[in-house]
Every structure is written in C-alpha cells, then in structure tokens.
Amino acid sequence: MTPFLLHHWLQSSAARFPDRVAVSSQGHSLTYAQLELLSNRLANSLRRQAVVTGDRVGIDLEKSIAAIVAMFGILKAGACYVPLDPRAPVKRLGYVVGNCRMRGLVTTPERLARLIPALESVPAAQILFAATDSRADMTWQGMESDTDTVPPDPGLLEQDLAYILYTSGSTGQPKGVMLSHRAALTFVNWALDYFQLQPQDVLANHAPLHFDLSIFDIFAATAAGACVALVPASASVFPRSLADWIENNGISVWYSVPSILTQLALNGALNRHAFARLRLVLFAGEVFPTRHLRNLLQQWTRPRFFNLYGPTESNVCTVFEVRELPAEDTPIPIGSACSNTEVFSLNDRGAEAAVGEDGELYVRGPSLMDGYWGLAEQTARNLLPDPRHPERAGRVYRTGDIVRRDAAGAYHFVGRRDLQVKSRGYRIELGDIEATLHKHAGVAEVAIVAVPHAEFGSTLHGIIAPRPGMDLQRAELAAWCATYLPPYMVPAEFEIRESLPKTSNGKVDRAVLQREALVISKKRSD
C-alpha cells in the first residue's frame, strides 16, 4: 500500500523492520513492533472514550517516548494531534485547549493538575486522559492490554487534518496552523527521497514537538525505518555536552535551527570527536550567519550541509546545499523549490519579480496548510487564488517574506513585510508581545523591536512608556510577560521612557526604534 496517511509509514516500517529501534531516549527505546502495538492500543482507547474522526486531541508531555506514542495513537484514532508547549504559561495553554475545542488530552497526572485551573472555560464534554510516562512502560486510562493489537479504522482520507501547530499571533493570542495528512506527507516523502534516508540512519530530534522542525525528525525517520533519537534537555544546555551526545548516539542526520549549530561551532570543542557517522547537517528556522557557518564547515568536513526554508504554513518548500566554503560576507541562499512545490515572487506592482529584483515569496502545492483554526479572515488573507492565474484551481500561500532571485534561480531571503521576526529559530509576532504588555494597567505605550544578534538571529527589546503617575520596573514587566508568554517571547531587555517617538500621523515611529536597535547591535559586535 502506498502511504497516504502519516501513520501508514509506521505500519509499513513495523512490518518490514519489527525489531529495529524506532525511537530512543535517555537509555530507553521502543522497536517498531512495540511502537506499532502501543500506538494501536492508545488509538483504540481513544475511540472507546468517544474520540471520533476529526476531533482534536492535545499532547501535554515533555519530549519523550510517550509523546511519540501519543502522536501516532492520536493519528490512528482518526483525530488531529495538538502538541502543547511544555514551557508555556498555564494561561496560554488553557487558551489553546479551549480555542481548538480539544476532545481529549494526553498528559501526566502532575501536568494535568497544573493545567486544571486554566481549563474552566473548556466544555464539560471534553475528555481528559491521564498518561503515565515512566521509561517505555506507558499506560492510558481505559487501555486494555490484551485486545487492542489491531488499529481502528476511522475512515480517514488524505485531506483530513493530521496536526495543528500553534504559533505566535499578532493579536496577542497564538494561532493554530492546520496541516492535513496530505500536506505533511508531501514534505515527508520529498525528504525521504531527497536525502536518501536509510534504515541505518539515526536522526536527532532537537526541536520541541510543537515546533515544525520535529515533523521531519519523527515522520521522515519512521518512513525510512530509521531511529529517531530524542535530544534530552540536559544535553542541550552546554554545547560540549551536546557534541558528546551526538557522538555517543551515532547521529547520522542532524536538523536544528542555526543558533544551536553556532553554539556547537563556538563552544562544542568539536575536535574531541570524529563524528564518523554524521553525514547530513540540515538547518532551518532563521538566517545562519555566514561566518559561523564557515566555522562549522571547517570543523565538520565530512557531512553535507543543507539550508531548508519554509514557514509552518507550507512545510519546507525550498532547499539549498552548501557545496563549498562561502565568502564571509555572502549570505546563504534559501535555494529553489522542492519537488511537487512551486515558489515565485511578486514585486510591488503584482508582477513576477525579475532576477535581482525584490519581491514577496508565494508558495503553491499540496504541502500547504488548510488554514488557521477559527480565523477565516486571516486565512483568506494568506491563502488566496494564484494572483498570476486567478482561474487556476487551488490556493497559494503568501509568506510575507521578501526575497531576491539570483541568475542561477536560487532565492535569497531579504527580510519581512510585517512585524514578524525570528529569535533562536522561533517565529514571533511582535504584536503578540505588545498586545500582552498593553494589558498591564501601568503601560501607556509599548513597542517591541528585534535587535540583530550574531548568534541568536535577534533578541527582543521592549520600549515602554508608563501611564502618568505609574512607576514601572523592568522586573515587573518581565514577570508580567512570563505569565502570558513562553520564555522565548519574553524580551531580554526593557527600557522605560516618558514617551515613544511618533511619525507625522501620530503612530509609533518604528523606523527610528529599529535604527536605534541597529546601533545597539553594532555596539555588541564591537
């Protein structure tokens, strides 16, 4: 059977390689046969608890073997999995649970107790499942060990939703990006073929499961019958420890944001290991500063390096292989379109941008999202008929990224047309942070700017004007943000001013603030 659903690849690999390790984490592992069996049992348990095709089921677990079982079990039940950010504040998690009207939640008793205060607005019909994550021995409420060996048949089609990933939203609340089985498989099948993934490969999963980079790690590994090794949080704290982990686990395929690779190059003492199995180094999510990439290329001379580009809404849509040591002042292209995908750019006049001309990037193909959960207007602004051929069936995704195409056909990232930035690989809407700060009774004006940073892409700087008579403290503002936002969205610095600069029409002059941010960045680099 040709896989047309994500979990079909697991069933295929379990039949071909039942005894191969499918997933490993901190000394524990599951074979493909075990992963198939456990996910079948969870799927049947979910169906018995009234989860039906199309329902949303959340995963509130640390990155673990149990979380991988949950992903496949939810899919096999015909539901759509929604991974929650384990580091996000409870209020934000409660919003996500209520926003997509989750039917179930796979979590631990401890995490459930933490979450309950934020679930007051969730419909009473919502079912919560308590999972015990203890090594590879996992049990779920209602699971029966003897009869649940065959997966249910929920009647899924490739256009049904597979997962929803919540990203930063400009309104102050996260928005859910809906991806179908067809969209995810378009990417996974391309990656399987393009990178020639093999059962002997060991893919590292560094990205959190609510981050779109994890789709490659988990599902491309499963499609290949390879092993996915979950990077523990303890190994990620220190670059030397992470380098040791890569060597000790025999990683052959690495995929992460550039800031992690930059830290490895600078502080990982990579010359201590041979990294003999490492054959592919993939990076995405932010611009890789060329001087740091050069440093890494000079230390890791054996593997091939690839820059992958694509918003959550489109999966990966372009790729570029770094075949030679780039000049230090030459940015790395985002490349050309993946197979079964078209990318094009339109200039300010709505015409296709010529070689060397700036234009906004659009994506066409089956890997696109279905839309934003519950946000019809925003979906319509970003998923629209092809401006070049309005009569053509299907929609294109307007990325908001400004690019420039070179004579060889490769695209280069230039910037954004809105207030979206990347920091440590995370996509952040500055308006999301600003809306959160505006809720503070003492804040009159606020602007968040991204200060360029050589290692992290950018850091966040908050400029605040208090209401008359209010004495705002930086620590107070940081604590306020931490109550509503995940850690990566809390500004690294706060600056208190009497007022913010204005344009002639009375709006906050972001151009002035951004110029000031560039001055701060230059002082750092000096």
Summarize the structure.
With 526 residues, the protein is an alpha/beta fold. Among the domains are: 8-182, Rossmann fold; 334-416, Roll (Luciferase, domain 3); 420-525, 2-Layer Sandwich (GMP Synthetase, Chain A, domain 3), CATH 3.30.300.
Structure description:
With 526 residues, this protein is of the alpha/beta class. Among the domains are: 8-182, Rossmann fold (3-Layer(aba) Sandwich), CATH 3.40.50; 334-416, Roll (Luciferase, domain 3), CATH 2.30.38.10; 420-525, GMP Synthetase, Chain A, domain 3 (2-Layer Sandwich), CATH 3.30.300.30. It has 15 helices and 27 strands. The strands form 7 sheets. The protein has a 5-stranded mixed β-sheet with strand order 4-3-5-6-7, sandwiched between helices. Strands 12-13-14-15-16 form a 5-stranded mixed β-sheet, sandwiched between helices. Strands 17, 18, 20, 21 and 22 form a 5-stranded antiparallel β-sheet that branches. Helix 2 packs across helix 3 and helix 9 (239-248) crosses helix 10. The longest helix has 17 residues, at 32-48. It starts with 7 loop residues before the first helix and ends with a helix. The model has no long low-confidence stretch (mean pLDDT 89).
Topology:
Layout: H1 8-16, E1 21-25, E2 28-31, H2 32-48, E3 56-60, H3 65-76, E4 80-83, H4 90-99, E5 104-107, H5 109-115, E6 129-134, E7 137-140, E8 161-167, E9 175-180, H6 181-194, E10 202-205, H7 213-224, E11 227-230, H8 233-236, H9 239-248, E12 253-256, H10 258-267, E13 280-283, H11 290-299, E14 304-309, E15 318-322, E16 336-337, E17 342-346, E18 358-364, E19 371-372, H12 376-382, E20 383-384, E21 396-405, E22 411-416, E23 420-423, E24 426-429, H13 430-438, E25 443-453, E26 457-466, H14 474-484, E27 493-496, H15 510-525
Parallel strand pairs: 1-11, 3-4, 3-5, 5-6, 10-11, 12-13, 13-14, 26-27
Antiparallel strand pairs: 1-2, 6-7, 8-9, 9-19, 14-15, 15-16, 17-18, 18-21, 20-21, 21-22, 23-24, 25-26
